[in-house]
Amino acid sequence: MTALTSQAPASRQPISFALLAQVILIANSFIMLYPVVVMVLSAFKTTGEIFEHPFALPDFTQVGNFAKVLGETAMPTYFVNSILVTGTSVLLILVLGTMAGYAVARYESRTNTFILLFFLAGLMLPLKLAVIPLFILLRDLGLLDSRWSLIVTYTAIGLPSAVFIMAGFLRTLPSELEDAARIDGASEPRIMWSVMLPLARPPMAIAAIQNAVPIWNDFFFPLVFIQTDARKTLPQGLTTFMGEYTTDWGMLFAGLTIAAAPITLLYIALSRQFIQGMTAGAVK
Amino acid sequence: MLVSRKQAPSLKRQLWVAFLVVPPIVFMSLFVVYPILSAFAYAFYDWQGLARGEFVGLKNFKEVLFGATMAPVVWNAFLHNVYALVALMIIQNGGGFLLAWLLYKEPFGFRFHRIAVFVPVVLSTIIVGFLWKLFLNPNFGIINQALYSLGLDSWAKPWLGDSSTALGALILANAWHFVGFPTLVYLAGMQRIPSEIIEAARLDGTNEWQLLKNIVWPLVAPSTTILFTLLFIGAFNWFEIPYVMVGLDGSPFGTTDVLGLVFYRTAFGNQSASIQNFGMGSALATLLFLFIVVFASMLTLWLRRREIQF
Asked: Which end of chain A has the lower number of beta carbons within 10 A, N or C?
């Protein structure tokens, strides 16, 4: 029986079909990667070389475009802003999400259902459409045109999913762990911090990646909230940069390459975690 | 067990739980609940710039849906959102389903293809938009350059400047950006199908097409539900790709205008018309919000009914 079932799929697969599948997959991967490759190659060329030999390999020692982007433009500032905004937002999401998730998962209370429904609503409402009142609220709080305007917005958007990821995981931990620590006289905060949370690193990593990537890449909220060039994040700064160098294609491709590099390299190094984190909301 | 979970919680415990739940709830109330409720309220007022004027009832809504200046723009944009939704359902989600099926068999190079298809997904929409804008440039973009070098000069076009191709180009750029997402969500869905089901069907002599149509497609229904709902929400919030590739006015001649651009122009103005109208913007946002909530829930309920437990 086992021999039969393990053989069956292979024998049912005609060679021609497997070949066709392979051709489609290779073509698709080519279409997915080639534009990125052209972007990187063009960054090593002068504008003249890009126009005349768009598909040729460049001289890789010619790094003038990169030096100019990093040395003469505000790109490094945008970069630092993106790191500050993304880092602080993800940290706040994890802290607040773990607090609410822990309370709901580990303490029985009549208000738990209400709390979960509250965050469920937050999960489904697109905050983008409430950008006008958010704009006015941030103005009244004196946060407009500051990095905090972005941090609080991203935290509010990311918090609900973090609560569900954390609560879902923390609920699966056996209560014997807590009880044993309680018998030893540990306080509730100590149980949470020293017994339960060290076990919750995997869901924290998922919640962090799920939120970090869209925050790092977001453009809409900076566009509305930030005016001062020195506070712009990478995607918004990129539009300023692209507007300044419209005819210098070597610079444009170098700027795009530098903007794309960190997240692409991180993805290649941690592809499993990225895929798991970014599809976490859609895969049960 | 000294402390049973059933026991009435002490005051100290209650304070501790409150300490855990109150900050996240206050935060959510301030930055999500309050803005969303205000968004509805704002739509009923007249606005002078950033200052709220008098209560005007449904005037802003009427203007958005039937007014002589707003309504044609809104309906034109709405139609483009619908086109994008339908096209992306087929290209992005349909393409993702087929790619997932090819990956499911774990052919040679499976790991490489799986990582490659997801590379564009991690990039910022702004990078994707600018990259394709450069590639689609009429004179120096690689698309037309490739056509010239293949001797297909007559096929070359100013893709983003031509009314007949601009929206299609935006849709394809979006599909390139996101096709990896449905691919990997469907792949995960297929991997959850018990392998006995697929093997049994193969033993019965089911061909590839029947297997896909009668067995795999119905069994990945939960993935379909979530992917189609997400795409629906995404298509009606579409903003970044059009903004970067064709600008705030949906050029040429509004043939790529979408509701996201109309909303931004109305609420925050643009270079050509620097008037901002928060009342009308809020009315448009409220209508769009209700439309998305109502249709997305109906879509979810309808798609859920097709889901099979196994």
From this structure: N
Q: Give the residue-averaged pLDDT of A114-134.
A: 86
φ and ψ at residue B52, rounded to 5 degrees: -80, 130
Using CA of residue B52, residue B54, residue B59, residue B63, what is the dihedral sign? negative
Give the Cα separation of A69 and A77 in Å (integer).
11
User: What pLDDT score does B97 carry?
Assistant: 97
Ranges in chain A annotated CATH 1.10.3720.10: 69-278
Residues in chain B within 8 Å Cβ distance of A134: 31, 35
Confidence band, pLDDT 50/70/90 cuts, at residue A12: low
Q: What is the pLDDT of residue B247?
A: 92
Q: Identify the burial level of B80 via C-beta atoms within 10 angstroms of its C-beta, where 0-12 means exposed, 13-18 middle and 19 or more buried.
A: buried
The complex scores an ipTM of: 0.90
Subunit contact A130:B39, Cβ cutoff 8 A: yes
CATH of domain A69-278: 1.10.3720.10
Find the CB nearest A100 among B20, B35, B134. B20
Spans of chain B below 50 pLDDT: 1-4, 6
**Would you call A224 exposed, middle or buried from its count of C-beta atoms within 10 A (0-12, 13-18, 19+)?**
buried
Instruction: Please report the pLDDT score of residue B178 as a whole number.
Output: 97
Instruction: For residue B1, give the chain A residue with the closest CA.
Output: A179
